[in-house]
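Input.
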Amino acid sequence: MIRIEWAVLALSAGVVAGLVLGAFALVRSSVESYDPSPVPATDRHWRVVRRAFLVAAVAFLLFSIYGSLIPFRLQVPDLGERPPDRWLVWSFSRTDMAANFLLMVPGAYCLMGATCLRSRKWWVLGLASLATLLVCGLVTWINEFGQLWIARRVASWTDIVMQHLGAITGVAAWWISGALVSHWVWEFASQRRSASRWSWILELYMVGFVFYHLLPLDLTISVGEIGNKFVTGRINIIPFRDLSHRTADWVELLRDVAIYVPVGAFVTLWRTARLRSFSQSLCFGFLIAVAVEAGQVVVRSRFADSGDVLLGMLGVALGHFLVRRLARGKIADSTAAYRWGLASIAWMLVLPVVFWYPYELTQDSGSIRGAFEQFWSRPFERLIMGNSTLGITVIILRDLVAFVPLGLLLSQVAARVAKRSSVRRAATLAAGATIVAYATALELVQLVIVGRTADITDWGLFVVSGWMGLTLGLKATRQPSDAAGEESWSAESSDSSVHAR
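Output.
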């Protein structure tokens, strides 16, 4: 057992060393020539960034109140039974403590961005930090004392402490990374080149991609625990060793390939003035796939499988060829719109394979009627009350990964229908309506499938995610100006691809 443990540890160390050296060589060879044209920072763009932080802060804080007071079933507590200092209890559940800590971090971070954006003066940052902590503290006390009057909820002093610590962490994180993140958000609003905007979207995808694979971040460096994972089969060195003929296994294979397609587009476009060659993209993709699996080795609750690296390489190759193919197209091209429409339909055919498994239909009218009544439960009630923080995060990321690409695909159909802006607006409205109709059908069919649960929360996440992808796709795709005759991203990328060959 000890030999196996040290062998796994030595292998992990060798993989990490190889990744560092390989990443350094690739980055130096393909990124150093990147020289994007600077765009002047205008007040209009920074106002957009400030507004985005403010909207995000309000959304996070309101969601914390909503999640704390759900299911909104009022009960009058008998507070006379115990003194005021005993109205709240102490609870030391790790899951609850982590959930309450994370609940306030993003709200505090975004509130700092809305109040002191671009400020470098220490006293401004200090006042903004104090105001942020006061607002987050007020929300925290509303959350916990409000639970005294809500059935099935328990008010806790521990939750108050952890939410305050989360707010402090969010403020500290802004002091450390606020300038970098705010400039990153500004880049999307200010960039004129569509290639740069698409790179920004893919960077955002990569952030979610990494979190999805490394959550819940229960890390370990214990040689014994890593060796135990290897012995019990949770570290699989032989590719596809456990592959069977079950439908679920093939669905997972398809999912693993699909989530790496945007990674292939990312490594082809990221931080380079020209599209990378196939060999460079494949090397970058290999490094990312191996790094993700190596990271899962030290996460207690995750599985590491070398087969996922091979599937990731296939997805990276598909993403690279997709970018190459799109670089040859033009914006106002009916043929290109037709191809994007076929891609959208193909994606719509893939999603039922994942969301309708195990495909066992029921004809029991009572079961269907009960599932339909549960469908109209309060939004997020079943999600919050029945899952851990990890479960909630994974479900939200799953819905984002499913419908943001659909919105991006439909945005390209709307952008390429015609040059006339009125026709494009009509196509955009049609694309938005298509997302709503498709999300409704995808969710309602689950009413008659055994083992699946239809929920209005999933439907709402589908629609919002799809509209988000549609908006980002339209923003990232530059339309040619009838007066100025501006070049589109496709033309720019086509020129770059010629030089890259």
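The chain has a mean pLDDT of 78.
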